[in-house]
């Protein structure tokens, strides 16, 4: 492998500053020259070293290895080049930030089968509904609803269109008349959701004659835990709302009853998203291909 050694100070500046602009200022060159130099270095190794978005710059796992190795004596630099070079085998730590409502991803089979097919990859899943910059936080990818993913991210479909459901148990409905219109929910015990204590409860969204509207319910119980919402609804604790995938098994057994179906339209589903496709790490590329294969098996 022939590496342009002039690119190493450039990489070290980016790694140290975590900013292309700051690195350019430190070296006395243009930001464009920094960007092109990093790309040439990544092309040499055949793997991504730096994750960059319009908001932040962070090192990939391979970039961290190179940065750490370059801090060693100069005699070890050649070994560092060979260590970071990709052999296209998925390996290393794959870190993914996932929203708690992504039932298709968190249910188990998809992740379990990916792990079985890629034994050299360790997987770290962080479940959170707070919105944050996955690149700045050091994650390889995230899973969110398509409508909330930043425009500078690449998104791969995980599910098809989604739909929310309003549900309650037969025991709750035996004691309370079923709502006929979303505005009737203000007279019911509702189980609400919010991502964190300092955020107002989620406003339930509906549509009538293709015109969207929302209802500001006053939840009797509020939580950030989807499974607690489900458990409370099953126990007759009130009416709640979440994605259809969450409730379908319980609708089929009769443990829950679907309400207000005519007021709940489809919306874009869940996506795996990440900053860029060029020189993608094999572990992430393998996950994307696994998701595509998994979707085909589900559809067909």
From TrEMBL:
Give the species. Answer: Phytobacter massiliensis
Question: Organism's domain of life?
Answer: Bacteria
- Keyword presence, Chaperone: no
- What Pfam families does the entry give? HTH_1, LysR_substrate
The alphabetized UniProt keywords are:
DNA-binding, Transcription, Transcription regulation
- Name of the featured protein: HTH-type transcriptional regulator DmlR
Cited InterPro entries: LysR-type_TF_proteobact-type, LysR_HTH_N, LysR_subst-bd, WH-like_DNA-bd_sf, WH_DNA-bd_sf
TM region positions: none
The residues covered by the HTH lysR-type domain are: 3-60
